[in-house]
Amino acid sequence: MLGLIVTAEPYYTGPAYLLDHGVATIRGGRLSDVPVTTASARELEWLVTHGSDLEPMLLAEMAKAAGGVVGLRDIGKKPGVDNPILLNAWDSYPWPTTT
Fold this sequence. Notes:
Layout: E1 6-7, H1 14-20, E2 39-40, H2 41-48, H3 54-63, H4 84-92
């Protein structure tokens, strides 16, 4: 991974902007040689649910990417699995107790 940009804002044309404005470039190569994607916070939260199974899934998405733009939406959330990072965060919060 060369870099990661995560946003909670809408990003509908994020990859197109990166490609059209030359923001995602590499020296001595072609942009299509570098997988590019934008991810919403939700997509990133869903990716975490796959654990160590995620790497081959990402590699498969990169292999079928057209022009270097990788889509993450098709991976989605692993059915029946909650995001462990979010669960730990909620469990660590000092919720008020009733007595």
